[in-house]
Amino acid sequence: MAATIEHIDFRGLPALRLRTTSGAAAVVSLHGAQVLSWTPPGGAERLYLSPKAVVDGRTPIRGGIPICFPQFADLGSLPAHGFARTAAWSVLTERTGDDFALLTLGLSDDEATRAVWPHSFRAELGILIEDGRLDLELEIVNTGEQALEFTAALHTYVALREVEESRLEGLHGFEYRDKTDANRIKRDSGDVLLIEAETDRVYHGVNRPLLLREYNRSLGINNADGFPDVVVWNPWVERSAAIADLPDDGFRRMLCVEAAAAQEPVHLPAGETWWGRQTLVAL
After folding, report:
1. 258 is annotated as an active-site residue
2. CA atoms within 13 A on the CB side of 81
């Protein structure tokens, strides 16, 4: 069986299903260009999608890999995480090979985006599945005549069997902004990061791959090119109960480990291109 890309309906939304000959698969919604599911060959689901996620073509979908652009979180005047995650993206390219499937989706400025963010741009998201890898590359082109600035992230929700039994390695020695403690700047001094309370951190200038271990499996996470920051988020008990589209125990089943350009806005001159990449490797 050759690798395939199939146009499907996902709970009423147009989406695409990518499959490889080795058995890897992914589902990508055109609403937000959002990866909703990724299963490596012979493996279990590696992305968390909330069973209470609202899928109506207008609301941000809780889980998978939302795109935060042109604003990460509340770092600006736009609604949290910007408009890309609720926009309708279009299919630019579909390619399959011996054992890979590659999809490129696109979004450009229009009257609605310019009303809230007065810039001309073109965004492309490349999604590649190959063996046990998921590669995402976000590219932003300034198609206007003036420089623009933005913050951005790939807001990856990793599926876990039990967050308290998981450990994230690779952040030792890096500074982070702790949103749960009045945005104080701290330095990570632990060999591993254990999630034992509400966690909302932006790590700065992370230049090494991360490893998320749980039970008998691990996930390698490598953020590259334009994503210098790593966001680690888990809402824990009280916040999870307060989030309408997340089950009360949803915090136990997920950890967001995000590729981000959040500490310093990206300055993109007219006609220039920026890109950032995240690679997930199932181990």
Report:
1. yes
2. 18
